[in-house]
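pipeline/complex-builder :: batch 7 item 3
reading input block
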Amino acid sequence: MINVKRLDTKSLEEHAKVIRRSIIRALTKAGSGHPGSSLSAVDLLVALYYNRLRHNPQQPAWPDRDRFILSKGHACPALYAILAEMGYFSTDKLDTLRQFGSILQGHPCMKTTPGIEISGGSLGQGLSVGLGIALAAKLDKKNYRTYVMLGDGEIEEGQVWEAAMAANHYKADNLCAILDQNGLQIDGFIHEIMSSHPIPDKWRGFGWHVIEIDGHNYASILAAYDEAEKTKGRPTVIVAKTVKGKGVSFMENQVDWHGKAPSKEESERALAELT
Amino acid sequence: MAEMVATRQAYGDALLELGEKNKDVVVLDADLSKSTTTAKFGKKYPDRFFNMGVAEANMMNTAAGLATCGKIPFVSSFSIFATGRAWEQIRNTICYSGLNVKIVATHSGVSVGPDGASHQCIEDLSLMRTIPTMTVIEPCDAVETRKAILAAVDYKGPLYIRLGRAPVPVITKKEDPYTMGKATILRTGNDVAIIACGALVVNSLAAADMLSKEGIEASVVNMHTVKPIDQETLVKVAKQTKAVVTTEQHVLDGGLGSAVASILARIFPVPVEMIGIDNRFGQSGEPDILFREYHLLPEDIILAAKRAVGRKK
């Protein structure tokens, strides 16, 4: 039943490359979507899925699985690519991203996509859902864990802090937030649009255990997941500094690559960098 | 004189029953549990009761998360905060995901009274019924509320139940049949059909009695399930009477009247008059005074019925 892959950091890096290539190809085919946020999240997600989560792609609804919620739902191409690689559905489906009739909607949809825990895409809602799942686990005395990925633009939503307050109140130590801190939001740099700094202090103020890492360093990511799992009595947030567009030089740290697909030529340049 | 009981009181009691019967039932409230009466459940089943504080958006999505794990969450607050503050959480996370979350909100309508307009939700039927896949219910009294709450558990999917603060007369009996989605015809007459929900059902019955004395015989339909509306019963009484009045403690836009008019316009057009709140906010005052101010009394329904009858071809 349990299917925990525990790939080493070298294999994880190889997988990340495959995933990044899949993202570029899918977005190019789709003609729209969010490459920057997908690419910044890849390493955190690859480490989670290929080294940490207890889940079973052949049985997505297995009741004791660990849960992952992509609250920054616009990064779903990264998640779709991983779910396809893991066998939740065929990798061919990635070519249908965002198209009419596709199981891969523009933002996550639990009804169409195996492996998606909750429909979403409206920012600020996923941590609350994760809290609900964490509370259900405690009620049922089950030991599965719930991970929720947030963006640093997303935490401008007030609901995130309602959830942060409640998760600490209910001592949800089976809940782990992963903050993909890529420093950009749609309209520009976060410090220019609406500064959410100092981010770690805010979470500490809400009673969370805070781990600060480089979100592209696999050793640090895995160590953080370990530490989160061992932290009892309160929830943990992993504040992961990342680079938006990571892996494709001309997309890195460029606000314009938040929400547009690469052209065919740009796609080829990107794929050449990801070999 | 009928016994007076607030529908919210019946809710708290029904939850206690459910708590015993079904271990998957969990209850969430946003610091209003004494008013919504969920505190009774919280006292008896503390492990399955989550007070989420004054944070409705988070509460709604926490319920969604619980539902993904097989729990049956009942989520309560005042109508305005449940459906207004947390509308998008209900729309995007609960309904779009098709989750089995029961939103039961109290303090709807101007019958909230002295708290005033900020706390008198007169838009919730509209807010909830426009969301695809949502079911919307407004029981007419305490006895029907119990049935609606018990039936909610047997229905799998998102659902909204609208309850009130003020005591209302108990006009239905325990043994009366109740089927979600199936309207009940409380009175039959051939001259006009009054389609009512919630606290306006009793006023509609009173209006029908008075109309009868003037020689106008009215059917009265308790349309407790506002969505999906019982089209069959609605069209049947429209064909029978050829004149319809809708009555609700809600703005005229988007509530029961809109739902009824929309069906009849497409299927069997007849004159429709609407009793409801016409593009105004509520205000402080006792419920009876507010019902007079907002034209929700039997005398208002009588006038509307006469207008509808007068418009028949």
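note: Chain A touches chain B at residues 63, 109-111, 117-122, 124-126, 128-137, 139-140, 158-159, 162-163, 165-166, 169-170 (CB under 8 Å).
queue -> next item
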